[in-house]
Amino acid sequence: MRIGILGAGSIGLLFASYLSKQFDVTLFPHRLEQSDLINEKGVTLQTLDSTITSKVKATLDKEEFNKQELIIVAVKQYQLANIRSDLNNIHKSIPLLFLQNGMLHLKLIDHLQHESIMVGSVEHGALKVNETTVAHNGIGLTKLAPYRGEITSISSLLNLHCEYFQFTTYSDYREILLKKLLVNAIINPLTAILKVKNGELIKNNFFMQIFHDLYSEIIPLFPELDSKNLLNEIIWICRNTENNESSMLKDIKFQRKTEIDAIVGYIVELAKDKNVRLPLTNMLYGMVKGMEKGGTE
């Protein structure tokens, strides 16, 4: 199976590393410099036990899109607008798999004409070390569900045999995206503002109180979710990734744009539509936006 991966950040590099063991993978980075380095050095995967380099092709040639049998879209949500025309030019018979955080990317997906579109929730911890190296610092699952078409269109991907990189499938895409949305909406802004690793949110009693207050404020917006089980799941994630820094904290530290709009911004807009007040959520949203922009526009 020929798999193209749009985006060569932490998730793009992670997927390229594991999928290249079984499939013909082509990475589509944004910059020529990174593409050249990947072609020269391959992609290196760092785990707790080993460091492995795999030969992976990289190109900026958009004509290569239509030579793939699956396109995995691994750019951040706010970068999707920049590749909208590229996605429209991919042949409609080629399945697409979107791996963005939040829910805003569903608006873009609605306008695509492709026969098979999947969405996924990535629970792995990954850190881009440099242009060709990714550290796999948290083993999880990638949860997939069909948005349009049948999940069988990517059956080859689902048959990947790898102990530390597994896929599970669901029939309801909204459930897996909502759960990931709530996880990110709690962990990401709090760790970014408090400048702490994930585990501190449940180790520090004061932080834990804010954690619970934020969750209690948001969860009534989503009555379809099991509030108690989801709370326990988020606490488990904090414990399981206690030494990890959230992606939003990393973005703030390195003065990059965050995904606050795709995650918390989505919840803020949903609350406005339902005429629900979210004072704590709105405050955290404003704080991250202020930090992201340095307080200026």
UniProtKB/TrEMBL annotation:
<keyword id="KW-0560">Oxidoreductase</keyword>
<dbReference type="InterPro" id="IPR050838">
    <property type="entry name" value="Ketopantoate_reductase"/>
</dbReference>
<protein>
    <recommendedName>
        <fullName>2-dehydropantoate 2-reductase</fullName>
        <ecNumber>1.1.1.169</ecNumber>
    </recommendedName>
</protein>
<dbReference type="InterPro" id="IPR003710">
    <property type="entry name" value="ApbA"/>
</dbReference>
<feature type="domain" description="Ketopantoate reductase C-terminal">
    <location>
        <begin position="173"/>
        <end position="292"/>
    </location>
</feature>
<keyword id="KW-0521">NADP</keyword>
<dbReference type="InterPro" id="IPR013332">
    <property type="entry name" value="KPR_N"/>
</dbReference>
<feature type="domain" description="Ketopantoate reductase N-terminal">
    <location>
        <begin position="3"/>
        <end position="148"/>
    </location>
</feature>
<dbReference type="InterPro" id="IPR013328">
    <property type="entry name" value="6PGD_dom2"/>
</dbReference>
<comment type="similarity">
    <text>Belongs to the ketopantoate reductase family.</text>
</comment>
<keyword id="KW-0566">Pantothenate biosynthesis</keyword>
<comment type="function">
    <text>Catalyzes the NADPH-dependent reduction of ketopantoate into pantoic acid.</text>
</comment>
<comment type="pathway">
    <text>Cofactor biosynthesis; (R)-pantothenate biosynthesis; (R)-pantoate from 3-methyl-2-oxobutanoate: step 2/2.</text>
</comment>
<dbReference type="InterPro" id="IPR036291">
    <property type="entry name" value="NAD(P)-bd_dom_sf"/>
</dbReference>
<dbReference type="GO" id="GO:0008677">
    <property type="term" value="F:2-dehydropantoate 2-reductase activity"/>
</dbReference>
<dbReference type="InterPro" id="IPR013752">
    <property type="entry name" value="KPA_reductase"/>
</dbReference>
<dbReference type="Pfam" id="PF02558">
    <property type="entry name" value="ApbA"/>
</dbReference>
<dbReference type="InterPro" id="IPR008927">
    <property type="entry name" value="6-PGluconate_DH-like_C_sf"/>
</dbReference>
<dbReference type="Pfam" id="PF08546">
    <property type="entry name" value="ApbA_C"/>
</dbReference>
